[in-house]
Every structure is written in C-alpha cells, then in structure tokens.
From TrEMBL, chain A:
Compartments it resides in: Cell membrane
Gene Ontology terms describing biological process: transmembrane transport
Occurrences of domain ABC transmembrane type-1 (ranges): 97-308
Region (Disordered): 1-32
Magnesium listed as a keyword: no
Classification via InterPro entries: ABC_transporter_permease, MetI-like, MetI-like_sf
Keywords attached to this entry: Cell membrane, Membrane, Transmembrane, Transmembrane helix, Transport
Residues spanning the membrane: 39-57, 99-121, 133-153, 192-214, 235-255, 287-307
Organism: Streptomyces dioscori
Residue ranges of coiled coil: none
Protein name: Sugar ABC transporter permease
Amino acid sequence: MGADTAVASPQKSAGADPDGSGTARTKGGARKKRDDRKAAWLFLAPALIGFALFYAYPTLRGIHYSLTDYNLLTDPSFTGVDNYRRLIGDEQFINALKVTGYFVVLNIGTQTVLGLLLATLMHRLTRSVALRAILLVPWLVPNVTVGLLWMWMLDANLGFVNHVLEALGLGTTGFFTSPTWAMPTVAGVNTWAYSGYTALLLYAGMLQIPHHLYESASLDGAGEWRMFTKITLPLLRPVLALVLVVSLIGSFQIFDTVAVTTKGGPVSATRVIYFYIYEQAFTNFRMGYASAVAVVLAVILGVLTAVQMRLLRASRSDLA
Amino acid sequence: MTPNPTPTLVPASRTAPGTPPRKGARRRISPGRIAAWTLLGVALFVTVFPFYWMIRTALTPAADLYSDSTGLVPDHPTMINFLRVLGLTSQAEAQAAGGSGAHLDFLRYLLNSVVYSGLIAVLQTLFCAMAGYAFARLRFPGRDAVFGVLIAALMVPPIFTVLPNFVLVKNLGWLNTFAGMVAPSVLMTPFAVFFLRQFFLSIPRDVEEAATLDGVGSWGIFWRIVMPMSRGPLITIALTTTVWSWKDYLWPLLTGREEETRVLTVALGIFQQQSPNAQPDWTGLMAGSALSVLPVLVLLVVLGRRLVESLNFTGIK
C-alpha cells in the first residue's frame, strides 16, 4: 500500500472520504475516490468463501432437497411439491408443531417472568459479579449435561426430587415418562438452564435506565412495586422485546434436551419439530421430506428474526 | 453504570419502618428487603444444588446407589467413577464399579472438545474481524450490498443448513475429521461480522489516518492498530463463541461420532444410550457430566467478570 502523504491531506479536509488508509487513489483520477479493492478481497476472502459454501449454497440446496425424494444413498429425484402436500396430511408433523408451540409457551412464559424477577432483584439489591456469575452457570453448561443432570434429579426411583416429594407425602412422579408431565418437565429444565442468562440480559438493560429516576421516585414515596411498573417496565420495553424474541427463536429450536431425555416420547408427547426433522433425516433417511419440514421451520424463524432485527434497530436508537 | 448513592438527600425520617424498601433506605433492614434477599437466595440454591448433587453422585460407589441416595454426603466416597470414565481403570474394574463394559475415554473427549471449540473460537473471531474491518473501513464497489447479503444469512436458521452441510461434508469425505466438524463455523458467522463491524466503526479514525500517513498499509493497520484497540470486543466474541461451541451437540453428533473426534456432549449422549435403561449407570454418567462442567467453572473463575459483562452487549445472539 502506497504512502501518499501529500495527497491525503487535501482530500481529508474536503471531507469527501473519511476513511483511514489511502491506496490506489490515483487510479480513480478525477473522482478522487479511494479504492481498496485488492485489500478488501483479501480481508473478505475467508468470510465470503464461508458464506458461499456453508450458508448460501446449503440454503439453495435445502430448498432443492425439499422438492425431491432423497435417501442419502441414491441421487435425489425431483418430485415437485409432493413433500409439502404430504406435510399437510402428516399428523406427526401437525403434532410436532403443536408440541413445539406448547413447549415455547411454557418455556418462554416461565423463563421471562423468572428472568425479569431475578434481574429486578439484582438491579435493586446488588451489583455483585459473583452472584451474576453463579446464576450464569446453568447456561454455560452444555444442554446435554443439563438434560442428564435433571434426568438423574427427577429419576422415578432414586431421583432427589422424588425423595423429597415422597418425604412430603406427595408420592413419586415419573417426570420424563408421564405423557402429561414430560413436556412441562422438559420446559422446566430449559427454564432452569436459561433463566439466569435471560436475567443477566435484562439486568444489563436495566442498568441503562438513569438511576436518578429511582431516586426521585423514592423521594416521592413510591414503593418498589410502583417503581417497577412505572419506571423499570416501560423503560425496559425495547430490551425486553428484544430478549423475548431472541429467546423465542432459541426456544423453537429445542433439540438437545429432548434428544437426551425423552427422545420424543412418551407417545410423541415431546416430539418437537427440530427432533422430528432429525428423525426424518437421520433415522428414516427421508432427507427430502425432512428438508420440507425444515423449510416450514425456517419460515417461522425467518419471520421472528425479521422482527428481531426491527427491534434491534429500535432498541439501538432508543438507548443511544 | 454504577449507581450514584445519594443517601444524604433523604432524611432519615422519611424511611420509617413498615414502608416498602426504597433507595433512600439503604442498608436498612426492612421486611421487603429480607424477602427480596430470600428470593435471591432461593434462586442461588436452586441453581447450585443440582450441581452439588451431580458431584455427590459421582463420588458414590454404584453399589451404594440404592441404599445411600438421600444423604448429603456419600457414605463411602470414591474416585472410581471418575477414574473409569477417564479410561484409567481396566475394563474388569470398570464393570465391577457399575460400568456397562463399553470403552470410555473422557480424557480424550475433553481434549476433543477443547480442540473443537478452540479452533472455532480463534479462527472465527479472526476471520470475522478481518471481514468486519473491510466493511467498516475499506472502500470498494458493492461494499454495502455484500454486507447486506452476508447479514441476511442471520435469517437462515441453523437446522436449515445442517442437512445440506452434512451432505456436503459427507461427500467431501470429511466425516469424523476436525476439518469437517469445524468447517461450517470457522470461516464466518453473520453475527460476529456484524458485531465487530459495528465496533470498528466506533473507533476514532485519527490513529489509523496517522499510520496511513506514515505509510502503513491496511494489513498493517489492521494488525498493529485496530486489533490491539479492539481487545475487549474480540475477547467477547471469542468467549461467547467458545461457550456456544462447547455446548454444540447436533452438529458434532452428525459429523464426529467416532472416538477420534468425539466431543464431550456427544460422548455423554452415547454413554447414556449404552447404559441400560432399566438401571442407568448414574454414578458414571454424573462423573462424565461433572467433567463437562469442570472447564466451564475454570473459565468462569479465570474470566468471570469479562464473561458476565460481555453479556451486556452480545444480548442479540
């Protein structure tokens, strides 16, 4: 890259190009626009290759697979919209959608309320980093570990929780094996794993709220509940909305916990959509059909992500 | 962001007992404060206790599981479960201690996990920083369009690319190699490019301009000025990437099941499947689980503040 000391200053003062390094400017001639083309492609090469190979190509490929019959062994054969037509009549698919919806409602509902409660408590009581670090541990641990840990805690015969329930005279429950309790249990386990993380995100948002608001409210004799509803909640709304959408997107993609604990059972009670895709693709080797289900999930998540990006822009401008 | 304590502004009389706790009532013990701290205490207990129970179980001999499953401390504490999942005992010893006889080598899985998440964290951060810098500072035709397309990849959910990427890696003959396992994530992730670009945009240009005048090219500026100035955000990205890849399950399960590349999460899943359903090898499973938590705790102790505070601005992921 050349060192054009002399040319750099007049351009800078013109304010036309505030960019840092000056290369190949002379090439542009009269336009006097810097062009870092060569350097740029060098900087971008890995990311662009990664994008093309592992994002763009597979996206197109996935849409293509969804229009084929493909078992991984022979070449995919084009079948048009057959897979989608079959989807509509597939009770397992409808069940997967329902079950996933049930999970998302249970998980997001409890996780958001708990996260908000924990964040508010921390915000009003303490700035302790150690406390926050401890609350973060369940999120730092792999979901597989979390699943195993709670399978053991909730084991019908030897699990600690059932010992406690028995001691209280409530009798034991096969949490992961009862069709009624399996899904609430999976949701509860995920809530346990992610509430601390949610709380920390919300807490970070609460720190943005000017502290003097609480002081003047306190001077006016407002209680904690009033401060929460009149100051915290309204001013937290952009962050809260963002956190909610991010958790929603994550929640729709529940897989690990189910794969470890219930494997979709009992009787499809926890056969969530991500797990259904996995089974179709890698147990039944129906790659084409699995891709069609993935397209549906992608559409749902795409809408949510679009909302997220909107909110992101909104929250940025609000807090700036 | 530290609060501004102004206790002097509040006359003591205003904080009469019985009123709800308020900022002015600092350090005063009120029922509301006690209730709030109790709630936090309960949350901490619920968070920590399962981990305690995990370790307690891992230290219990399998034979004692039925007779000794309620006490807070095992009657006959033992390290045998850790030793056998680490593959440090003979097969006969492992079976005598409750193992199913399947070979276990958690030392290797632990190492594989470190390699897997280490490779992803370091390379992804580097390549995304390079891309972010190009988008933030370099001028070239089509810059904003290319950036827009890259960011649009945020809308593509992982499950959608998992199937075709699996086929791709399989066709490349990369199944059960680290190359195949990390390939889709090392080169870029839209979020990191976006996040680092935002940060680079916020760096004042003066220093870079001065360096340009001194004849330093963009590569030199990137390495000698921009990267050192961006240590915070770079560590943030690397750290969150480490955590996410440490937790990865589906992708390594599909592409790296074999012993040589098996990471901890996959190993735990397989271990559980091999363990008989009627009588799971809980002491071994909890020992393996504890080993997957250990590095996380190390990370937290060494980088706790950084990790906790990094959540402040990566909340988008």
